[in-house]
Specification:
The complex is a heterodimer. By secondary structure, chain A is α/β, with parallel strands linked by helices. Chain A has eleven helices and ten strands. Chain A folds into two domains: 225 residues, P-loop containing nucleotide triphosphate hydrolases (Rossmann fold), CATH 3.40.50.300; 78 residues, no CATH class. In chain B, strands 4, 5, 7, 8, 11, 12 and 14 form a seven-stranded antiparallel β-sheet that branches. Chain B contains 25 helices and 16 strands. In chain B, α1 crosses α6 and α20 packs across α22. The chains are: A alpha/beta, B alpha+beta. At the A-B interface, α2 of A face α7 and α10 of B.
């Protein structure tokens, strides 16, 4: 296996059985894939498609029914490989009776990290995931989003080379989601390899270099996001807002060439709109700019009606 | 190299014409292969432990592989064999039924060519099942693709052949010692091979498991153990609130304890035992209850709540998960035991020492000052008894045998019909006597002609250095050594013969002469003081006489304390009601013939004390013969081996109490290991019940299981017992072989072999319990403590390692 390949699965298959050993569900069918150093790799698929099973198999939490999986060239049952891995489960399965600091110290002690270094990392990670204000509260008092953040921090406590994130933005608000996405990109820029699973397509599209699409345990598509999303038989030209005269000239040219076209103003995403509003609100607290305000202003008709009533 | 005499089996009669080399080989094969035989040397119990582990490993390994094969459908791939196995299993049940019918005389015994039909059927059906299992195993293990498993499977087959080979070697050597009357031939080979081969097969599996364990063990890191232990500790406090619950119950119970503990007036000394026993029991109950509830819940909760995902995805070994939890729970147990211990000792100090001993001594002093001498004596005795109980006495015990009323040697005394009394009795004013023997090599009371045991007195603990008796002891020992060197048996030779031997052997003569001079010198000085004392007595100067006697005593070793606790069985009230029963005590040094006699009144529930002259031990070589007779006609004295002993020393009670708590801590550790083990593969309610079952079986039913193990249960197995229970039938009656009785006996015959093996895995908590020893004021000596620590780890290690293998082989995310 090339040193550039961090994860490799060969014919990886998982069948869940009942107590009597009868096959219940085939969660994964003959998965072959490679994840390369320094990329963000997305496992995409609907619920029950085998994304989490794949991650659990890679971590040795499940045993494959058939096939093999390797991380850093080592078989997945080799515990020592976990020294270089960070893992965020799909839910924040953490000890609720510990506070954030204790949690990170606990997980930090499981790695070969000096006390001084561990203390430094704990402080830095708590700040990074934005829960400094609640670091002495037990996790049972945390909201889902805060638990997700501390979960992410524990996954990074060992400064891992490979980070496995199972639905990392689940339970987060759009701001948190955006921050996590930024963080993931930063980690990639630091040379780390990231595998993440999810079914929020926009999130995956934003950050993944490559994706694998799974459906009912089978690999349906694998490749670069840009390659997979490009619609080859459509051309899109973006310009600044065109005047009516320029637009009619363009239409004329297109009509002359028999091209089918649509002219429209692009819309932003709800996520972008939300983020812009929240940022503006942070910059100018107190100023309201809500669509409902506009709607509540008296219209011309209302003015006329009011005037008629006064006569 | 071990001599054959080291082995139990070798103590029996051997057929003539067997060479020493063959005996030695046979000895090794039996000791290594038969789980019921072992060496009497220091490693004997360890060897038995290893053999039991080997057998359990074999059963576990084969069971797990075969069950996995069935689940994967690799083991059930031959329909013909599956049908044959089904027939075999039904056939085996039928054979058991036939066997019961024959034994209850419902069906006549049927033999074919002298071989019982049931044996033939059992063999045929057994082979059918065996072939099915064998085929399934090869298929299952071939299916897993693990090379090491295939090697082990091949290895256990070779070991099975070796076992049968060993049985072949043993033919004609020592069949009688293996408990079989068969000698040679195929039945012998099968019978003995079936006993030896599984152990050898188990060794192969145990070797593989040991290698796997060692590879895990070397990867264990203290920092990770600490982390898991810390998490367990915090969880116990914050989530379970276990510490606070236990503490509150302890304090509440303790607050009312003294309301209920009131000894009767004639057993005032019992107050110490009652308090110590109650506190130890309270500590034990609370700690064990906490452990039973807490330990089996932790790991299943982690698995169910999936918090384990974020732990095992770190470089944490499965063994660390188990040992870390064990350490965390034991840290909690340690804290609780330390706090309980501190509170208990303070409580005992206030209630027993200040509240009973000091008060009684002050009352005795006051009575003496007021010249109420009988009351003073009684109070003084009570205080002495209380102090005796609140100490840590180190007894030196002998071996007890009896003479019955006709003077015939017996290993038990007279049974007076008290079922719950473990003591047996000697009858007053008859030749009946209890004889305690001390010495390096004395006959075993149960096998006096075959076996010898050691109950040697450590003379150096009793004789003070550079005293008359100590030097006398050295002289006699040197003389005996010289006599032996000259080929004279000093125990049989006369004094003159020994002196002659000493004069001839030049080896120790100079030393003997030097010691003799020293002895004479000391003796002379002592005699001077004693004569002075006699003269001063005559001159009516008691104080000076006492001082002179004390000076004379400095040349002697102090008298040797002898303590006795006997019970009295009265057939009549006696001449005067409450009159004590008298015992005659006779102590003899068997080598020098020195004797001491006394008649003492026996006080029930009291520790009767006698000081015997130290010169009795001089030249005793650690041997004494102590005879106790009851001289009160129509009365009986009851005694057991532990009821009479030489008191070697009396240590600090507080430290002894701490040792008692340590043994409770050890029991908690064993139960913790079981709880954590159960949590590796069971859901928490089932794990909780399993831990509880182990605890109850280990505490209350170990003796019962031991009886199971030797299949010595009166009233039959569980099913037969159920019928007796319903029918109100007693244990000794032979049941009428009705259909239900036959069915019950058949089921018993099938499950009893499995149940008898439970004794191997149920922990013997009563062996670890020393609370009664502490409460009675006896020392928990270092050998007892080390033995208990060893025993506790002998349970903890296999349970935790088995837990590791289970956790390693299961999918934590399934």
């Amino acid at each position: 296996m090339s040193s550039d390949v961090i994860i490799e699965t060969r014919n990886l298959t998982k069948v869940y059985r009942d107590f009597w050993g009868r096959p219940k569900v085939q969660a994964l069918k003959a998965l072959d894939l490679k994840v390369h150093r320094g990329e963000i790799f997305g496992l995409l698929g609907p619920n029950g498609s085998g994304k989490t099973t794949t991650i659990k198999l890679l971590l040795g939490l499940l045993f494959p029914t058939e096939g093999d999986a390797f991380i850093f060239g080592e078989p997945t049952f080799n515990v020592a490989k976990n020294e270089r891995i960070g893992y965020l489960p799909e839910e924040s399965y953490l000890y609720k009776f510990l506070n954030a600091e204790e949690t990170l110290h606990f997980y930090g002690r499981l790695f070969k990290i000096s006390k001084a270094e561990r203390t430094k990392r704990v402080g830095r990670l708590i700040e990074m995931v934005g829960i400094s204000h609640a670091k002495h509260r037990q996790l049972r008092e945390y909201s889902k989003g805060m638990q997700r953040r501390i979960g992410l921090a524990q996954a990074l406590i060992n400064n891992p080379e490979l980070i496995l994130l199972d639905e990392p933005t689940s339970g987060l608000d759009p701001i948190g989601t955006a921050e996590i996405k930024e963080l993931i990109k930063d980690l990639r820029d630091q040379g780390k390899t990231i595998v993440l699973s999810g079914h929020l397509l926009a999130d995956m599209q934003d950050i993944c270099d490559r994706i694998a699409i799974l459906h009912r345990g089978e690999l349906r598509e694998l490749g670069k996001v840009s390659d997979l999303l490009t619609v080859q038989d459509v051309t899109q030209i973006k310009t600044t807002d065109l005047s009516e005269s320029v637009l009619s000239e363009v239409r004329h040219v297109l009509d002359r060439n028999g091209v089918k076209y649509e002219v429209d103003h692009p819309t932003t995403t709800l996520e972008e709109l939300f983020l812009r509003i929240v940022r503006e609100s942070d910059q100018h607290p107190g100023r309201r700019r809500v669509a409902a305000d506009i709607a509540s202003k008296p219209s011309v008709a209302d003015d006329e009606l009011a005037s008629a009533r006064s006569k | 190299m071990l001599a054959p005499s080291l082995f139990l089996f070798a103590q029996g009669a051997q057929p003539p014409g067997v060479s020493d080399a063959m005996k030695k080989l046979a000895g090794w094969l039996v000791v290594l292969g038969d789980p019921n035989q072992t060496s009497e040397l220091w490693f004997g119990s360890t060897l038995t432990w290893i053999k039991v582990l080997a057998l359990l490993s074999l059963v576990g390994w084969l069971g797990a592989r075969f069950a996995q094969g069935i689940k994967d459908r690799t083991a059930l791939s031959n329909k013909f064999l599956d049908i044959a196995a089904s027939v075999g299993l039904i056939g085996l049940f039928g054979t058991s039924l036939l066997n019961v019918l024959q034994s209850t005389k419902r069906v006549n015994n049927i033999d074919i060519s002298g071989v019982p039909l049931t044996a033939i059927l059992g063999l045929v059906f057994g082979v059918m099942v065996f072939v099915w299992v064998e085929f399934g195993l090869w298929k299952a293990i071939g299916g897993t693709g693990r090379k090491s498993d295939r090697w082990v499977l091949a290895g256990i087959h070779l070991a099975a052949i070796f076992g049968v080979g060993a049985a072949w070697i043993l033919q004609g050597v020592t069949a009688s010692m293996l408990g079989t009357e068969r000698q040679g031939g195929l039945p012998f080979l099968l019978l003995i091979g079936a006993r030896l081969a599984p152990t050898f097969m188990g060794f192969v599996v145990l070797f593989q498991l040991t290698m796997l364990f060692l590879s895990e063990f070397v990867a264990v890191r203290p920092r990770r153990l600490y982390a898991i232990a810390w998490q367990t500790w915090v969880e116990s406090f914050r989530r379970m609130q276990a510490f606070w619950v236990v503490m509150i119950i302890f304090v509440v119970v303790l607050a009312f304890t003294h309301w209920f503990l009131r000894p009767s007036d004639d057993r005032v000394a019992e107050i110490g035992r009652q308090y110590v026993g109650t506190l130890s029991t309270l500590c034990w109950i609370l700690l064990i209850s906490m452990i039973t509830i807490l330990t089996p819940i932790s790991l299943p909760n982690d698995i169910r709540g999936m918090t384990i995902y974020s732990v095992v995805s770190k470089p944490v070994r499965r063994l660390e998960l188990i040992w870390g939890r064990l350490l965390g729970f034991m840290a909690l147990s340690t804290l609780i035991v330390v706090i309980f211990g501190g509170i208990s000792l303070t409580y005992l100090w206030r209630n027993v020492y200040l509240g009973a001993i000091v008060q009684t001594e002050e009352a005795a002093k006051k009575a003496r000052d007021q010249n109420r001498l009988p009351a003073a004596k009684q109070l003084s005795d009570q205080a002495s008894q209380l102090r005796t109980r609140m100490s840590a006495r180190v007894p030196v015990k002998g071996s007890l045998t009896f003479l019955d009323s006709r003077g015939t040697p017996q290993f038990k005394g007279i049974d007076v019909g008290q079922e719950l009394e473990y003591r047996s009795f000697v009858e007053g004013a008859t030749p009946s006597a209890a004889i305690w023997l001390f010495g390096d090599s004395i006959p075993d009371p149960y096998e006096p002609t075959k076996k010898r045991i050691s109950r040697k007195i450590p003379v150096e603990d009793f004789l003070k250095a550079n005293t008359i008796e100590s030097i006398q002891d050295q002289i006699v020992n040197l003389k005996f050594a010289d006599a032996r060197a000259a080929g004279v048996d000093p125990t049989k030779a006369s004094g003159k013969e020994i002196d002659k031997a000493v004069n001839n052997a030049s080896k120790n003569k100079q030393e003997i002469d030097r010691l003799t001079k020293e002895y004479e010198n000391l003796n002379k000085q002592a005699v001077v003081f004693e004569e002075q004392a006699t003269k001063l007595d005559a001159d009516q100067k008691p104080a000076e006489a006492l001082r002179a006697r004390r000076d004379a005593a400095k040349f002697h070793s102090p008298r040797v304390p002898l303590e006795m606790t006997f019970t009295v069985y009265r057939t009549t009230k006696g001449r005067v009601v409450g009159e004590p029963v008298f015992a005659e005590l006779e102590v003899t040094n068997p080598f020098t013939g020195e004797k001491y006699n006394n008649i003492i009144p026996i006080r029930e529930y009291y520790t009767n004390k006698e000081l015997i002259p130290a010169k009795l031990l001089a030249g005793s070589n650690g041997a004494l013969r102590i005879v106790v007779r009851c001289i009160s006609p129509t009365q009986y004295l009851g005694m057991a081996e532990s009821d009479l002993y030489l008191l070697s020393s009396s240590g600090n009670f507080g430290w002894n109490f701490v040792k008692g708590l340590l043994c409770i801590w050890l029991q908690a550790m064993v139960l913790t290991a079981i709880g954590v083990f159960a949590g590796t593969f069971l859901s928490w309610p089932v794990a909780l019940l399993t831990t509880l079952a182990f605890g109850v079986a280990g505490v209350a039913a170990f003796g019962f299981l031991q009886q199971f193990a030797v299949t010595n249960m009166a009233g039959g197995g569980p099913f037969e017992s159920l019928i007796r229970l319903i029918a109100h039938d007693n244990l000794m009656n032979e049941l009428t072989p009705t259909l239900s009785v036959v069915a019950a006996k058949t089921l018993d015959s099938l499950i009893m072999p499995v149940m008898t093996r439970l004794v191997y895995i149920v922990p013997n908590f009563s062996a670890l319990d020393v609370s009664n020893t502490v409460a009675l004021g006896y020392a928990v000596t270092t050998p007892i403590l080390l033995g208990n620590i060893g025993l506790a780890f002998a349970y903890v290690l296999p349970f935790t390692v088995t837990g590791f293998f289970i956790l390693k082989s299961r999918e934590v995310a399934a």
